[in-house]
Known about the structure:
Blueprint: H1 15-35, E1 45-49, E2 57-59, E3 75-77, E4 83-85, H2 92-104, E5 110-114, H3 117-123, E6 143-146, H4 156-166, E7 171-174, E8 178-183, H5 186-209, H6 217-227, H7 230-247
Parallel strand pairs: 6-7
Antiparallel strand pairs: 1-2, 1-5, 2-3, 3-4, 5-8, 7-8
Amino acid sequence: MIQPNLPQPPTFERVEDERLHRKQRLAAAFRLFARYGFDEGVAGHITARDPEHPDHFWVNPFGMYFGHICVSDLLLVNHKGEVVEGICPVNAAAFAIHSQVHQARPDVVAAAHAHSLYGKAWASLGRLLDPLTQDACSFYDDHALFDDYTGVVLDLSEGQRIGRVLGDRKAVILRNHGLLTVGHSVDEAAWWFITMDRTCQAQLMAEAVGKPVAIPHEVASLTYSQVGTHFMGWFCFQSLYDKIVREEPDLLE
């Protein structure tokens, strides 16, 4: 149950204001991903659907370090993979995956994928996460396993397969690859990725030293309803956004 007097996701009267808000959140998410060590060379991407043109999305420039990205650096890419706004190239894998995820999920505003250390370590096991902790319950019966690996995703048909496996869930583990999360806001998608990677870390550590005790189904389901909602995904990101904007205000440029 949502406690009273909590902040709520914003609404907008002008599409220009909503676009700027999404881009600011997107730039902040990249800065935070850099802080969490989710950068891996040129790999990784987060996308935000454009509020005016739903078949277009904003994404990071290919090859730019997450920790340097500003609002003005973001690229707008159309459904053909063409850069409509921006001067840098787009990551072909970003387009192949995210264009199909956005197409398969009209409700999704944002999708996040990176080669985070614990996410890719867990992905190599080809297993779903277990409900071992309260935070892990955010993903209880709400994540899938893409149980295949055929190399770098450059073909749209591979992105379509990922979209089908994701279904209506908030996340998918890409075997031998990493994690992908989605949300009804950039905030939500970014938070799910952050906490999912840490959930992978927690289970890897627990299994390394013993046999973890899983949370029973009934309790895991209840906890999911408390911590795994769209609102909680959005809300958990707000303090991180405030932190990164205060410490790195240039990201808004």
